[in-house]
Amino acid sequence: MPFRSEPGLADLYRLPHTQMDRTEGHVDEVRAGMVLEAASVETASVKAHGDEGHRDEGHRGVAVLLGMAAILAAIVGVRATGLASDASDTWQSALRTEVKRSAAALNDIGYLYQTEVPPVVTILGTRMQEAELRAAAATETGPVADTLTREADVQASVLTAISSSYELATDPAYALPGGGVNLGLRLADLRNQTPALLALDPDTIQAAGDALGAKAASMTLPLLPIGVAALFAALAQPFAGRRRLLLAIGAAALAVGALGAVAVEVLA
Amino acid sequence: MIEPEVATRWRSKDAFDRSATLLIGAVAILAAILAILQAGNGLASTRAQAQAARLSADAAAKMSASSLARDAGLRSQQDALVLGMEAVSRLMVATQGGDTGLFAVGTAEQAASGKLTAAITESAATSGASPVDPYAAGLISATVDQLNAEVTEQNRQVNLANDTGARSQRAVLGLSLLTLAGVLVGIAAVLGRGRAGWATLFVASGTIAVTTGVTLLTVF
Question: Which of B117, B118, B108 has the alpha carbon at shortest distance from A135?
Answer without folding.
Answer: B108
